[in-house]
Q: What sequence folds into this?
């Protein structure tokens, strides 16, 4: 059994969000994530023809997921990313992995 944790965040961009600004904010957020101990993998996906996204992050442990989630609320880079998201659409869930194939840390 795995100790890994998976965080899934569904959200929509604000109606007036500039996509180029969102891409830049996402790149900065990805750099932040890449530097965090305990992060194994992150993937951001967009629903075709919509402003709906899903952000999936694999962590070594649930403690790592919670620690980085807390850092997200305080970090200016993360908050620039969050400013472009419609807050009422955010749905965050954290799961304990029970089965998975091996993953490598993002590079």
A:
């Amino acid at each position: 059994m795995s100790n890994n944790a998976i965080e899934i965040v569904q959200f929509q961009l604000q109606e007036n969000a500039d996509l180029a600004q969102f891409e830049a904010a996402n790149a900065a957020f990805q750099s932040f994530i890449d530097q965090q101990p305990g992060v194994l993998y992150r993937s951001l996906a967009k629903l075709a023809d919509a402003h709906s996204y899903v952000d999936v992050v694999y962590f070594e442990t649930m403690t790592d997921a919670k620690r980085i989630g807390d850092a997200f609320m305080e970090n200016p880079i993360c908050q620039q990313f969050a400013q472009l998201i419609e807050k009422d659409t955010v749905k965050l869930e954290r799961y304990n992995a029970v089965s998975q194939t091996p993953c490598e840390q993002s590079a």
